């Protein structure tokens, strides 16, 4: 139940007749309409990742709506006086849209139910359509990697990114450590993009992850051909009547952190089910929408849905009732795919909740921190209940956004620096609780688990930020594979799968 705020006073702008006509014929009218009910109450501030006053970050949804309203007024004035919209106003408009992690957390406390995450995506889409979106090399490379479907292209880009880019960035962190530490301890304000030299320091003030698998999950299993649907199963324990699940790995769990996709497959193998994978490399389309590339996203989503219908028709004898994901943004995007019409009567579920259903747990073998992603994939119950049921009661929740936010860490690293300031405080606070309780030794490393590929990259950047020891970031399903299947779980699973555990069906 919500209060009836129909007649509540809002300080939003009132439009004259001819102004309304202009607004109705432009995308900016929809943006203005989506924020017009804001009461300026500020209830969104406590949950907003881009509102950290002590890090000079004051871009709460309330403040961004104020700025957006003023910019819309400026656009209207310039349109009516035929001066042309000022480039400076477009830059300010882009700056507002940049200061958002698209976590959608502001929607819950908002009394008039404004979701500034959706507003932000619409703003970015408008900037793209108007040709006013700034060129940012990091974002361009990341999106090219996510949009690619050709195995050779992905192999080349991954090699360039991981073997060259990540290594160079990690070396630069060591080189500029003193400057980087000063910057992270006292983050400067981010009103507009910073000078190039300062932005480079922002990009190299915390290390990107190292020690990643050399190849993608599909390359290791030789299932890159998009003409075939791979069905992975243990031939010794399964048959044609065994339960089958459709696993959508997404780009993060398959292309970059391939250990996540492989661990998911290994645990499904361990659970005794047949795992059907999509043919070829696919992305769900959420990163494209988040970046404002609505045209690319819609085409990608439509192509995927058509392909999945073909897969369902080809494999109708398997009677798939479960779609498994290992990424929260994939979960959120796939909810719009209408999977119940692709695999009739099916459901979407996170791999961790699926393993809990099967009774596969660690039974309290260690002590951990847990970072719940902004786009949490665990929907059946409060995520911490699921996590504690899987890994034991010795786990503490680490609040706040990690600062990676998909491609934000490479698009606007200056904003990420400010967001990480708050996350560092939270990590150190929970570290102290773990050590004081005796669950972790005074000098031991601390392990933080998560369930999002982007967060896994983001959390790896905090490895040197503890009071004592190192922070080790990992995925829950990877930790489970290591503890249940053994330290060599990955090569052993790949070997078993490649020795008769993969059926390739022409689609």
Automatic annotation (TrEMBL):
Domain Cysteine-rich: 245-334, 368-456
Repeat among keywords: yes
One term of GO molecular function: oxidoreductase activity
UniProt keyword list: 4Fe-4S, Iron, Iron-sulfur, Metal-binding, Repeat
Pfam families named among the record's database cross-references: CCG, DUF3400, Fer4_8
Entry keyword annotation includes Iron: yes
Domain (4Fe-4S ferredoxin-type): residue spans on this chain: 35-114
InterPro entries given in the database record: 4Fe4S_Fe-S-bd, Cys_rich_dom, DUF3400, Helical_ferredxn
Protein name per UniProt: Lactate utilization protein A
Top-level taxonomy: unclassified sequences, metagenomes, ecological metagenomes
